[in-house]
Input
Amino acid sequence: MKKLLLIFLFFVSLATAKAQDKIITIKQDTIECRIISVNAERIIYEQKTSDNHFVGMSIPISDVLQYIRTGRSDSFGDRLVHEKIKRERPEHRWLFSLQGGLAHSFTDYSNFKTMMLDAGNSASITNDYITKLQNGTHLSTSLHYLVTSFFGLGVDYNLFRSASKGEFLSPGYGQLNVPLYLKLGLDERQYSHFAGASVLFQQFPDKKRRIKISETISPGIVLFRNESRNSEYQSYWGDRDFYNGQPPQYYERANSVTSSTNFGAKGSLSVEYGITPQLSAGLAGNFMWAKLHKVSVKNAASDTNDQKLEKPMNISHIDYGFIVRYNF
Output
């Protein structure tokens, strides 16, 4: 009787061991366990420890190649269910994104500020002019092909624009070397274009998949352009050393364009809410990094190409605003 009992227990334990679930990872590792549940993102399972306790664990679907789950079909035996993980492919493979809002540039204008203060201009006027140049607007758009619901490849474009206009004092000298201050008008517009390849990551933290967190990383090319329109009152002396009364004055304009092309990189983060299965909207932020080492300057008098700067010019900027994404 005891022998029959031992034989029965042996076959029960053997059947139990064979009935264990298995998870095969993409690294070809095998996890023997009991699978509790499987969803679009993770497999939740439990494993028996050396002291005969069960510990709950989980593994991302992205790390799983295949899992083998044992199911009871009837009282006579076990039914093994082999399920190979299929990467979740969205019904709509293309994702178009449009983003807009405000932006802030990290360009250093300390030399310009020092020059204006030394010329006798007030700090408040100078700071106001610089603030307008550093703070502008941005527009971003991208197109990605979704390899899975969580990963995509595509292209990204970003535009930063700022403008500033002000009037300053320009020192000069009149008759008998008497200091004479003339009015100087400055009008600048800056444009920074970024274009490059892009990698997209998406996560859905809620079960209904209405909340979406997206990240993108994009290396690319930056095109920088600064348009300057200056105007200044000048005194016309001609061949004379002096005038009886006020010498004639004229309004002189001096326009110039500064441009450069360099490598840059852009990263973005957004949190969105799914309005429909294909349309989502939310808040987004970007950081675009770039430094200029050479610039080309063109004006009416000269045309200089690829002039090397003594110190690299930082044109990095952060963007923040609203984003809309559409799957099609």
In short: The chain is about 10% helix and 65% strand. The mean pLDDT is 84. The two ends are 70 Å apart (CA to CA).
